[in-house]
């Protein structure tokens, strides 16, 4: 696959014309997509001094993280049925329905041209999202295939302040526990009716929700099922099955806060860019450590995850804003220092 879909859609609002073109493949390894690729096209197409309100100006938008599911589907990395398999029979349909039928608009952070957030409306339910992780962890991982139920569920957990990755894991885990006959939690895979009742019970610790609120590790230690309790250090695993990118497994295992894909996201070089063989541990220790150190300093500076800035540019930004004289090597050492501090605590 190329970019997110392999194509760029140009919409000329002044002339009422639409044209489709192939993504510039030689740019993908340099700019990765989303904001970086959008800026590269802008630089190619228009004068940076153009009047922002000119009809010749351009703007870019995307479909947020939904397309990540396309890459993960191709790599067999979409958790399904509490990670029993990495192949989802429903994700592509659900994502297509959201994008083509129910998406009503986009949302951007302040001053960002990307607008990677998605506003949807389905049967009177208006909602921002769900993005890839939420769509799959509360959908396919629980084997819920009805889009309205998934959207209603995500709207509920958003209002209640619950995390979609963790709650998707928790519910999928108790579904499997019930189906295996280890302990009957009163809910099975695909049971949308009882699934929709759980967010309120978990948030307010009512009935079964009292213990579900403690997470997968707690439940597995009390009732069994540790061999399929998908967590590291008590944090539930996100929607990137490490069996399809072995570096991700190492990243989960060595993360300071458990199973987190933000500490080192190895599917980019392993799957998306095809820069390193995914089904081996060869070279993965260095890959994971470099990404952990890089992200530690990048996020400490406060740079958006979708900005693929190299360390030299990060150093320039720090120097311009602080008056210091750091180089990329010193930033890397700072990232290592930050990461080690986190490991001391956890």
What is the topology, as strand order, of the major beta sheet?
Answer: 3-4-5
From the N-terminal CA to the C-terminal CA, the straight-line distance is 37 Å
CATH class of the largest domain: Mainly Alpha
Tell me the name of the CATH homologous superfamily of the largest domain.
Aldehyde Ferredoxin Oxidoreductase Protein, subunit A, domain 2
Protein name: Aldehyde ferredoxin oxidoreductase N-terminal domain-containing protein
Keywords: 4Fe-4S, Iron, Iron-sulfur, Metal-binding, Oxidoreductase
Pfam family, one: AFOR_C
InterPro entries: Ald_Fedxn_OxRdtase_dom2, Ald_Fedxn_OxRdtase_dom3, Ald_Fedxn_OxRdtase_N, Ald_Fedxn_OxRdtase_N_sf, OxRdtase_Ald_Fedxn_C, Tungsten_al_ferr_oxy-like_C, W-dependent_AOR
In short:
Its cofactor is [4Fe-4S] cluster; tungstopterin. The chain is 47% helix and 9% strand.
Write the layout of secondary structure elements.
Blueprint: E1 7-12, E2 17-22, H1 25-31, H2 34-45, H3 68-75, H4 91-102, E3 103-107, E4 117-122, E5 125-128, H5 132-137, H6 147-160, H7 164-180, H8 192-195, H9 198-203, H10 209-212, H11 216-223, E6 231-232, E7 235-236, H12 246-254, H13 267-272, H14 284-301, H15 311-322, H16 328-345
Antiparallel strand pairs: 1-2, 3-4, 4-5, 6-7
Organism: marine sediment metagenome
Cofactor: [4Fe-4S] cluster; tungstopterin
Pfam families: AFOR_C (PF01314)
